Structure formats: structure tokens, C-alpha cells
């Protein structure tokens, strides 16, 4: 079995850990042995991206189909090779 040492533990966290261990009738060390596997064996929540978050937020409102506007002819390409004097005249 491996051993670990945890330094610079927050005093409040240490106090709460001691209290929890006492409530469960265990030593602090045994309490940590119980907490670590439980915390590490939990399935990680699937990563969500912004699109999924937005979808989840608006899903209760139902689906809305939007009309796609017709494409228009492209505007004429702007040529920047003219000099400022050519543009002003």
C-alpha cells in the first residue's frame, strides 16, 4: 500500500474532516481512505460546450424553423488600386 502526506491543508477543512470522521466512528486517516475512492470512482460529468449549453437552455421552448433568405448577387469587388485623386475626381 502507498502512503501520501498532505501539507498546507486548510484549517477549516481539517476541522470538518475530523468532525466527519468522528460522526462516522472512524479515524481521520480512515475517513480519508473512504472519501478518496468514492470521489474518484464517480463518473466524470460529460464535457459540455457552448452549443450544448444553449440547446439545453432553449429546448423546453420547442423547435423553431427559420426561413433561409434567398441569396443575392454578390456586390462588385472593391478595387483599392485607384489613387485618392482618381476617387475624388
Q: Can you offer a commentary on this structure?
A:
The chain is built from four helices and no strands. It has 89 residues and is mainly alpha-helical. The protein has a domain of 46 residues. It is 45% helix and 0% strand. The model has no long low-confidence stretch (mean pLDDT 85).
Write the layout of secondary structure elements.
Blueprint: H1 11-23, H2 28-40, H3 50-58, H4 84-88
In short:
The protein has 4 helices and no strands.
CA gyration radius, whole angstroms: 32 Å
Shape estimate:
elongated
The major β-sheet equals: none
* Number of helical elements: 4
What is the residue-mean pLDDT, rounded to a whole number?
85
Number of strand segments: 0
First-to-last CA distance: 88 Å
Task: Write out key terms for the chains shown.
single chain; 89 residues; mainly alpha; DNA-binding; Arc family DNA-binding protein
Amino acid at each position: 500500500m502507498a502512503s501520501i502526506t498532505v501539507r498546507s491543508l486548510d484549517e477549516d477543512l481539517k476541522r470538518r474532516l475530523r468532525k466527519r470522521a468522528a460522526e462516522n466512528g472512524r479515524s481521520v486517516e480512515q475517513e480519508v481512505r473512504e472519501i478518496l475512492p468514492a470521489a474518484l470512482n464517480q463518473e466524470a460529468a460529460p464535457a459540455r460546450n457552448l452549443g450544448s449549453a444553449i440547446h439545453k437552455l432553449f429546448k423546453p421552448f420547442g423547435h423553431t424553423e427559420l426561413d433561409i433568405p434567398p441569396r443575392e448577387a454578390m456586390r462588385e469587388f472593391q478595387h483599392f488600386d485607384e489613387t485618392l485623386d482618381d476617387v475624388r475626381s
